[in-house]
């Protein structure tokens, strides 16, 4: 029945030096559907695969705007993500009120990192069962961070978390050098391709199950750079992008080798 | 004359009456600052084409006594902004320590990059001013104000010159030229002759602005009895802050003093 004796709370080490509750929480992240994030020098995009509980229900949102300059993609327990999302929204708003600027992304990530770590060290608490990709821009440029239930946070060039995300990460690793100089559209295309890699057979990206979030810097009319507000794209808005990476479009490209052949 | 040690430093009873010991009560309701004690006088600042000039003298007065003559009232923040303090000096020192903490926290959040080679942080003068305004207003609402008027000089998020003021009530405002304390009456009219509007200020050169501010410091020394001829002056541009803390007022002319009537011993 029990896997072992040391997994009843998150404050007790196992003799091997592991904290099982934290590891189980990390498993919850792997149950969530896959989300991908990529940065270039100018933009950062989040791409997510949405799931519906049953054929008759709607699809669960995966990407959320936190503030004008930042957003998150979630994998794991949606209700836990809601708590973190609300916290992050409040911190961004509070910072805007006291300093009159966007909360720097690293500060934001450090805050949830510290918050989540407390849950792994206090009796009677449980870790958050959700992993996040945090995308945002600040004065130092675009950023992508990974967040894990352990409280670990790390800055990434590109990353994917969630079910079968290893396939997406392999794609990202293979194309890593290309991302820095990608345009906004190219970056989204890479995100969708990475997402496709992790799809189970016979599944496809549709306007129902695909979600895209973008922020970055854009040129204003007077030549100065301004922040492109973080926006989530769903439904018809993602149609053109999905068609852009459709299998038949991809066929002539050099990446044909990595494509699956229908049996 | 009472020569007993316990009477040393006390007002003489035969002249001022018995000492009012009620000021020394140790019980009773908690009282926060109700008046500044050691004070700095005016801070003056003026925007120009690509930055801001700010100056304040090096005096800390104890009432009318020129008590400390080497007190630096301009403070550099993150190599990119200057904060000038008028009013209570101990509250200034508290704010100085507080801003040190803020600068350290901010530096931790920034890693050096091509755009930001030094790990200084990205909190600009506009951000800092907003923060100080919230801080001052919070303290006023606690009925425990920080007894200062503060000028913040630097650049805003668009790298344009930024100059704004906040006082002990949390009142904040901005202008092409600003002066606190006595300077609001004496220096502002002079600076407004050169920079009445933002457009005027944008036409001022650095040397002109420095010259105007130095002239203001001189006029203040002539007429403000809590001022001194040793002062600090800083110029903030996008290249950073140039702060000089041991300046001496030059080319003083007290000829006008002879025409002053009604104060000294003369019988008109």
From TrEMBL, chain A:
Keywords: Cytoplasm, Nucleus, Proteasome. It comes from the Eukaryota. It is found in: Cytoplasm; Nucleus. GO terms for cellular component: cytoplasm; nucleus; proteasome core complex, alpha-subunit complex. Residues 6-28 form the Proteasome alpha-type subunits domain. InterPro entries: Ntn_hydrolases_N, Proteasome_alpha, Proteasome_alpha-type, Proteasome_alpha1, Proteasome_asu_N, Proteasome_sua/b. CDD domains: proteasome_alpha_type_1. The keyword Cell inner membrane does not apply. One of its GO terms (biological process) is ubiquitin-dependent protein catabolic process. The 26S proteasome consists of a 20S proteasome core and two 19S regulatory subunits. Belongs to the peptidase T1A family. This is Proteasome subunit alpha type. It comes from Podospora appendiculata.
UniProtKB/TrEMBL annotation, chain B:
It is found in: Cytoplasm; Nucleus. The keyword Transport does not apply. Its main location: cytoplasm. Pfam families: Proteasome. GO terms for cellular component: cytoplasm; nucleus; proteasome core complex, beta-subunit complex. Keywords: Cytoplasm, Nucleus, Proteasome. InterPro entries: Ntn_hydrolases_N (IPR029055), Proteasome_beta4 (IPR016295), Proteasome_bsu_CS (IPR016050), Proteasome_sua/b (IPR001353), Proteasome_suB-type (IPR023333). GO terms for biological process: proteolysis involved in protein catabolic process. Signal peptide: none annotated. Belongs to the peptidase T1B family. Non-catalytic component of the proteasome. This is Proteasome subunit beta. It comes from Podospora appendiculata. The lineage of its organism: Eukaryota, Fungi, Dikarya, Ascomycota, Pezizomycotina.
């Amino acid at each position: 029945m029990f896997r072992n004796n040391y997994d009843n709370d998150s404050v007790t080490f196992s003799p091997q030096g592991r904290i099982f509750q934290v590891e189980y929480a990390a498993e919850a992240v792997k149950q969530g559907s896959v989300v991908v994030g990529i940065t270039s020098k100018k933009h950062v995009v989040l791409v997510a695969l949405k799931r519906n509980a049953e054929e008759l229900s709607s699809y669960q949102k995966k990407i959320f705007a936190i503030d004008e300059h930042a957003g998150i993609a979630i994998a794991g327990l949606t209700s836990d993500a809601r708590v973190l999302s609300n916290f992050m929204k409040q911190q961004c708003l509070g910072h805007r009120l006291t300093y009159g600027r966007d909360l720097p992304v690293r500060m934001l990530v450090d805050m949830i990192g510290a918050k989540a770590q407390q849950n792994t060290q206090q009796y009677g608490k449980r870790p958050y069962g959700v992993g996040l990709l945090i995308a945002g821009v600040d004065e130092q440029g675009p950023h992508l961070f990974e967040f894990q239930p352990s409280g670990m946070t790390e800055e990434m060039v590109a990353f994917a978390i969630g079910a079968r995300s290893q396939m997406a990460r392999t794609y990202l690793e293979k194309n890593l050098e290309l991302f820095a100089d990608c345009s906004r559209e190219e970056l989204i295309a890479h995100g969708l391709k990475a997402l496709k890699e992790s799809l189970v057979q016979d599944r496809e990206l549709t306007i129902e199950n695909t979600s895209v979030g973008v922020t970055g810097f854009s040129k204003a009319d007077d030549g100065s750079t301004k922040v492109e507000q973080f926006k989530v794209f769903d439904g018809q808005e993602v149609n053109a992008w999905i068609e852009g990476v459709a299998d038949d479009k991809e066929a002539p490209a050099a990446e044909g080798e990595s494509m699956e052949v229908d049996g | 004359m009472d020569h007993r040690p316990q009477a040393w430093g006390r007002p003489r009873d035969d002249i001022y009456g018995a000492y009012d010991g009620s000021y020394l009560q140790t019980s009773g309701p908690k009282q926060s600052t109700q008046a500044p004690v050691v004070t700095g006088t005016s801070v003056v600042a003026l925007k120009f084409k690509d930055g801001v000039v700010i100056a304040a003298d090096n005096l800390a007065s104890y009432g009318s006594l020129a008590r400390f003559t080497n007190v630096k009232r301009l403070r550099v923040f993150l190599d990119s902004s200057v904060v000038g303090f008028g009013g209570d000096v101990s509250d200034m020192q508290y704010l100085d320590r507080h801003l040190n903490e803020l600068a350290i926290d901010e530096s931790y959040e920034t890693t050096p990059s091509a755009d930001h080679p030094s790990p200084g942080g990205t909190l600009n003068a506009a951000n800092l001013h907003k923060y100080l305004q919230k801080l001052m207003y919070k303290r006023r609402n606690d009925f425990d104000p920080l007894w200062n008027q503060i000028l913040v000089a630097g650049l805003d998020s668009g790298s344009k010159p930024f100059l704004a003021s906040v006082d002990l009530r949390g009142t904040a405002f901005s202008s092409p030229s600003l002066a606190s304390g006595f300077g609001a009456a004496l220096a502002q009219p002079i600076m407004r002759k050169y920079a009445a509007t933002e457009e005027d200020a944008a036409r001022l050169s650095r040397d002109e602005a420095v010259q105007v501010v130095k002239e203001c410091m001189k006029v203040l020394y002539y007429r403000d009895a809590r001022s001194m001829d040793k002062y600090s002056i800083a110029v903030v541009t996008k290249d950073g802050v140039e702060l000089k803390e041991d300046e001496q007022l030059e080319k003083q002319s007290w000829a006008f003093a002879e025409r002053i009537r009604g104060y000294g011993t003369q019988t008109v």
